[in-house]
Amino acid sequence: MQNKKYKDLEVYFDLMLSNGASSLYRIVEEMEILNSYTLGEKFSADELAAKHQFKLLPTKVLLDTLMTLGLVEKAGDSYVISNVMNLLKGNYQNLSSEYWAHLPTLLKSGTPFKRMDTVENSEKEYQVQVKSLEWMMTPCAELTVELISKLHSETNIKEGAINVLDVGAGSGVWGFNFLYANPKATCTLADWPAVLVVAKETSKRNKIDSRVSYIEGNFHQSNFGEPRFDYATLGNVTHIQTPEENHRIFKKIYDALLPGGRLIILDAYGKVEEGALARSLYQMGLTIRTVQGKVYQPSELQPWLSEVGFKTFEFHSLDVVPYSMGMLIAKK
Ligand SMILES: C[S@@+](CC[C@H](N)C(=O)[O-])C[C@H]1O[C@@H](n2cnc3c(N)ncnc32)[C@H](O)[C@@H]1O
Question: Domains along the chain?
Answer without folding.
Answer: 4-95 (1.10.10.10), 119-331 (3.40.50.150)
